[in-house]
Write a structure and sequence with these properties.
two-stranded antiparallel ribbon, six-stranded antiparallel β-sheet, mainly beta, Jelly Rolls, about 10% helix
Length: about 150
């Protein structure tokens, strides 16, 4: 694991934006789980923004995936850095599909480089929750649609 990326992720966790707009810039910022505002995609993946607008800039969010969800092989234009909070996940590059799988559990870290074709799966019997930092705006380009 690259120490610089982990330090960036840790610094991001410390600076998470408050859900209370009246907080001063020098206050401790807290995001209490029951107050998170989850937005669910048609595929059932839910995002709770912590800092930044995921469609316009780099951002931090809590992400929930339904148990058993397997994404299609896709790419993202930005790098992704995540920490598993609950559940069990597998992330595979396109070249690793069909090979051995490392199951990530609570406390495990993952890093997916920008433009790397990959798939993600929630392999647990319960939903998977991750803390996610993405170093640019969110996109999801299924493989084949983004290639020329």
């Amino acid at each position: 694991m690259k120490i610089g990326k982990l330090a960036c992720l840790t610094a991001g966790l410390i600076s998470v934006a408050s859900l209370t707009p009246s907080a001063r810039a020098d206050d401790i910022k807290l995001a209490v789980q029951p107050e998170l505002n989850w937005e669910t995609t048609p595929e059932g993946v839910a995002f709770a923004s912590l800092k930044g607008n995921r469609f316009d800039e780099s951002y931090m969010a809590m992400v929930r995936l339904p148990a058993g969800l397997i994404s299609p092989v896709h790419t993202k234009s930005a790098g992704m850095y995540g920490l598993i909070v609950s559940g069990e996940m597998v992330h595979l590059s396109e070249n690793e599909i069909g090979g051995s799988e490392v199951v990530l559990k609570a406390g495990d870290y993952y890093e997916i480089p920008a433009h790397l074709p990959h798939l993600s799966k929630c392999v647990s019997e319960v939903e998977c929750v991750t803390f996610l930092y993405q170093d640019g705006p969110f996109d999801f380009v299924p493989v084949g649609e983004g290639r020329k």
